[in-house]
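Weekly puzzle thread! Below is a chain. First person to post its structure in token form gets bragging rights.
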Amino acid sequence: MKILQVTSPHEFEILNVPVPEPGQDEVLMRITAVTTCPQWDLHLRHNEPMFVGHAFHYPYTLGKPGHEAVGRVEAVGEGVSDLKAGDRVCAWRDSGEGHHGCYAQYIAIDAARVIRVPEEYPDEALAPLELAMCVSTCFRMLSDMDAIWDRCFGVCGLGPAGLVGLQMARAEGARKVYGFDFISERRDLAEHLGAAACYDPQDDLSRVFPVRPDRPKLESAVDCVGAKASVEFLMDRTQDVLALFGVQREDYTFSPRHYSGLRLCGYNGHSRESAEYAIDLIARCKLDLSTLVTHKLPLERYGEGVDLLENRQAVKVCFLPWED
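Winning reply:
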């Protein structure tokens, strides 16, 4: 079978290796599509740690960093009783360090890390489920805090996670959703997906979005960037709850001007319940993951796909392991 290996920064190979056998509690998944995770793909390309204390080692694990995949169960290992050959499934949780990734034609994966998905949707509408699961965790938490319904809601960072978050805010009944991003094409896409309006955060927005100590217009918000400037931009413009989804790589400053009611909440971890939540939104036509996929390429053109991400010409690239 074909499998990708990143051999060094900016370099990769497509290798031919034997198809794995599913072990105890595993399934063999035939991968029909896998989407990029721009953070992982770009940080791996430049050997930049993903977070504090992290380091990449080359050659990188076979098939990594691919983890957003859809396909079918080809075979099941001992101990698997709730899945069978032919089931259409998505990988909803990365297998972690030391396990092969999904930039491949097949993967042997823990059965608990895949989930059945509907038959009627194209691959690109399902492959990014793992990302949707992650974002769902934030939105389930915000919903439990009664921080979305009938609220003026902000989303900073209109990359893949922000575009998912925008759709989830609308699905949970936000009164209006506003987006913020430097890239005009992403602002346009967010408005197409239902944002009331989108803005470049570098512009002077003080008349539209008053800054503390004035009363902010946004009642709740989510940051999908993780940068200090992005988070503090929303801290200054959000009345009540700000969810921090973007990976934190530096300290944020909570100042006296934020004391009057601003609450911050972090990420609460992966869960199958969050994957099920995302699948339910897809089935109810409240979440369209296919809108994230701007390009489709065979796996052999991995480098071209990452170029598109780096040049901000793509939101997500969908790789097709069985196409030449």
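Puzzle host: Confirmed. Bonus trivia for everyone else. The chain has a mean pLDDT of 96.
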